[in-house]
Amino acid sequence: MSHVRRKLYGSLGCGLWLASVLTACGTAPATLPSTPPVIPVAHKSDPVAAESSVVQSLQKQLREREKRIDELESQLNILKMIDQDVQVRRKPARTPAMLTPGE
Q: SS3 helix, strand, coil % of the chain, rounded to 5?
């Protein structure tokens, strides 16, 4: 039984040692670098450029909508003129006073 226990503890010890070695591989070095990391300046202007493109896109959509509204208003005016023309044609040519009772 002690032989099995010794093997078990040996395997457990090796597993713990291997786990600690593998986790140490992913950690930061103990000494800090002598120069600070360089932060690119381009990232600071990216939000402004992105906002500018969004604003331009929204302005384009607004112009397209205004153009569409103008087209629809023009079509509405044409339809109103057609409707007025149809109403004028529906009116009888003679007034009711001119009609004779037999008609």
A: 75, 0, 25
